[in-house]
């Protein structure tokens, strides 16, 4: 072996080692995340009432003062002229992948698929996923389906837009991928669903400060909930979604604890 060949081998070995180390780090994270099992089962010891016990970092699931979801009631609603129309713009067609993470059906979106602007901060859509039945309630009313469109800012802040669906006509939006829903039997297997158009948004909405509705229940999430012109979903589409995640996956609602629910109209 020539010295230059040795140098090439040395570089390749170094790359291989760093690849292995890289994989090791990733798998440690993955294993670390999987070590703590959580679910929505109200009878067991890993359901929403126990999330705070499962990991020290998840204590806020119980102690937090700004937890989500909430039951949106008239007494908490405050018309806020400062909200303005929703400033959200998305690419017309977005190349997306879908997976079933065991808790929900999740559709991942590529970086810079659009922008949601709130109080001077730009958030980019990262993924959307589904809860059945809805997590947010309105006047104690539950809905059959809720979609969360999750946005992140450059510095890691979160803004989530929630859509509550009523049963009725088939959803053209869901029809783009509802026949490609991944089974719960194959968790975390990503498949491409091609280019999709995001759900059309009403420019009128409500807003409050809340949290992630899954562990670690981190707070300081800016929530936008669509309150007018609820999108529809057909019974058949609901069936396909519930076949994919055959258990309820809604966290129970929390008291607003004095939080106002700001409305744009
Ligand atoms: Zn969610």
TrEMBL record:
Annotated CDD domains: alpha_CA_prokaryotic_like
InterPro entries attached to this UniProt entry: Alpha_CA_prokaryot-like (IPR041891), CA_dom (IPR001148), CA_dom_sf (IPR036398), Carbonic_anhydrase_a-class (IPR023561), Carbonic_anhydrase_a-class_CS (IPR018338)
Catalytically driven reaction(s): hydrogencarbonate + H(+) = CO2 + H2O
Secretion signal, residue range per the UniProt entry: 1-22
EC number: 4.2.1.1
Domain of life: Eukaryota
GO molecular function, one term: carbonate dehydratase activity
SUPFAM superfamilies named among the record's database cross-references: Carbonic anhydrase
A Pfam family recorded for this sequence: Carb_anhydrase
Cofactor: Zn(2+)
Alpha-carbonic anhydrase domain residues: 36-265
Keywords: Lyase, Metal-binding, Signal, Zinc
Task performed by this protein: Reversible hydration of carbon dioxide.
Entry similarity comment: Belongs to the alpha-carbonic anhydrase family.
PANTHER family: CARBONIC ANHYDRASE (PTHR18952:SF265)
Protein name: Carbonic anhydrase
Organism, scientific name: Ceratodon purpureus
């Amino acid at each position: 072996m020539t010295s230059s060949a040795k140098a090439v081998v040395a570089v390749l070995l170094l790359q291989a080692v760093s690849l292995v180390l890289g994989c090791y780090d990733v798998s440690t994270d993955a294993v670390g995340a999987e070590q703590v099992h959580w679910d929505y089962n109200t009878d067991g010891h890993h359901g929403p009432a126990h999330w705070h016990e499962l990991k020290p970092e998840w204590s806020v699931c119980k102690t937090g003062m700004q937890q989500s979801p909430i039951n949106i009631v008239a007494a908490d609603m405050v018309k806020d002229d400062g909200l303005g129309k929703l400033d959200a713009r998305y690419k017309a067609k977005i190349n997306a992948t879908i997976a079933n993470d065991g808790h929900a059906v999740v559709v991942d979106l590529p970086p810079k698929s659009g922008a949601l602007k709130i109080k001077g901060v730009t958030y980019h859509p990262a993924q959307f996923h589904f809860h059945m039945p809805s997590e947010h309630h309105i006047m104690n009313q539950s809905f059959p389906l809720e979609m969360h469109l999750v946005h992140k800012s450059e510095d890691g802040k979160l803004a989530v837009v929630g859509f509550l669906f009523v049963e009725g006509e088939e959803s053209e939006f869901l029809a783009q991928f509802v026949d490609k829903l991944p089974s719960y039997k194959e968790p975390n297997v990503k498949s491409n669903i091609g280019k999709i158009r995001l759900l059309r948004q009403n420019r009128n909405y409500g807003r409050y400060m809340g949290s992630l509705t899954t562990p670690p229940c981190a707070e300081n999430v800016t929530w936008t909930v669509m309150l007018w012109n609820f999108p529809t979903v057909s019974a058949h589409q609901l069936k396909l979604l519930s076949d994919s995640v055959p258990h309820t996956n809604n966290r129970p609602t929390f008291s607003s604890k004095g939080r106002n629910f700001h409305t744009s109209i």
